[in-house]
Design goal:
Largest sheet: 2 strands, antiparallel
Helix content: 55-70%
Number of strands: 2
Strand order of the largest sheet: 1-2
Radius of gyration: 24 Å
Number of helices: 10
Shape: elongated
Structural class: mainly alpha
Strand content: under 5%
């Protein structure tokens, strides 16, 4: 089969687990001539993957790409066209949706085409661009989530003593996020590491199997600043958020007990509870990001440290999980964010599942919060 020919399932040798073409063919036999110099010699030991895996990956990535494109596009439209959602904190949410939207456009379609041809067909230049875009948008996403957690920390933990978070602050944070991400993703184009086809040949990323120090140092330092640092910030913020919420709820219960009422909710308590709900949404989003990108980090570190044998088939799942994360955030906000559900119901009522969202902003803000009824108020 030629490199650019149609997929041929008949050539697969079932005696070669996960491989294609028997013992005489390797991954390198599927690489176009202009890409050979970018493929590390490490992959020479593996046979080409079974075309069935390419078919499964291509179909799955195509479906995820469509969901991500529609979902994040809808988030951007609703947040941009709904006045009550145009808050400084939600600018960070819009930035996250924009990053995921761009990733779905730049990542999914090229990968579907590559899966059809069972190799990278876009040439060296687009391999650089593909790897750069994937790194850029992934970096923007995790640091945006770190900023969201810091904003929640500022509101919930510091409370009234917190410095107000304005749109100027949000714009500055977003600008810094994109600048930092651009610096890290341009570095491989300037010689610090490089973007190369991965073992599955359907996507490009940083060279994590090269044992030269210039390549290893980039992976280690990049992971420190783009994975471990924001993750540490998120853990720190949510540790104190949970602590503050627990202390607040305990105080409310004790006060209600002293006043002999079932519950006690002032307007301040209602606002705090609403902020806690938003913090839970952010925590859910961040957890999904963690589970999606951690396998990719493990594979990269396994390549750099040589602690485990990486196969082309293992890289395919990491690519799939990382790109699947882009379609999770719109679903999370569609299910959990009260004001977003309210706007979604107005603009796309057929897409709202479950109970209808509250009909006004005041009710939405205090959604799910127990209010003090007349019977619960202490007697004068």
């Amino acid at each position: 089969m030629s490199v650019m020919g149609h997929p041929s399932f008949g050539s697969w040798n079932p005696q070669s687990p996960g491989g294609f073409g028997g013992g005489n063919l390797t991954v390198m036999d599927k690489v176009p001539p202009d890409m050979v110099h970018l493929v590390d010699a490490y992959w020479y030991q593996f046979p080409p993957m079974n075309p069935l895996w390419h078919g499964i990956l291509g179909f799955t990535i195509g479906v995820l790409g469509v969901i991500s494109f529609i979902g994040n596009g809808m988030v951007l439209y609703i947040f941009a066209s709904t006045k009550s959602l145009k808050t400084p904190s939600n600018l960070l949410v819009v930035n996250l949706a924009f990053s995921d939207f761009c990733q779905s456009i730049t990542m999914c379609f090229p990968m579907v085409v590559n899966c059809y041809y069972e190799t990278w067909v876009w040439g060296p230049l687009f391999c650089d661009l593909y790897g750069m875009f994937g790194s850029e948008f992934g970096c923007v996403s995790i640091w945006t989530m770190a900023c969201i957690s810091m904003d929640r920390y500022n509101v919930i933990v510091k409370g009234l003593s917190a410095k107000p978070f304005t749109k100027k602050h949000a714009a500055l944070w977003i600008f810094c996020i994109w600048c930092m991400a651009s610096i890290w993703t341009i570095a491989p184009l300037l010689g610090w590491n490089r973007y190369v086809p991965e073992g599955n040949l359907s996507s490009c990323g940083t060279d994590f199997v090269n044992k030269e120090w210039i390549h290893k140092s980039y992976i280690l330092i990049y992971a420190t600043f783009v994975y471990f640092t924001p993750l540490s910030i998120i853990i720190y913020c949510y540790f104190f958020i949970v602590q503050a919420v627990a202390a607040h709820e305990k105080s409310m219960r004790e006060q209600a007990k002293k006043m002999n009422v079932a519950s006690l909710r002032s307007s301040e308590a209602q606002a705090t509870s609403a902020e806690c709900k938003l913090a839970k949404i952010a925590l859910m989003t961040i957890s999904l990001w963690f589970f999606a990108w951690t396998p990719y980090l493990i594979v990269n570190f396994s390549g750099v440290l040589g602690s485990a044998k990486i196969t082309p088939l293992s890289t395919i799942w990491c690519s799939l999980l990382a790109k699947a994360n882009t379609c999770c955030n719109p679903i999370v906000y569609g299910i959990s964010h009260p004001k977003y559900r309210q706007a979604l119901e107005k603009k796309f009522p057929s897409l709202v599942c479950g109970e209808s969202a509250p009909k006004d902003d005041a009710t939405s803000t205090a959604s799910g919060v127990s209010a003090v009824t007349e019977s619960e108020k202490p007697a004068a």
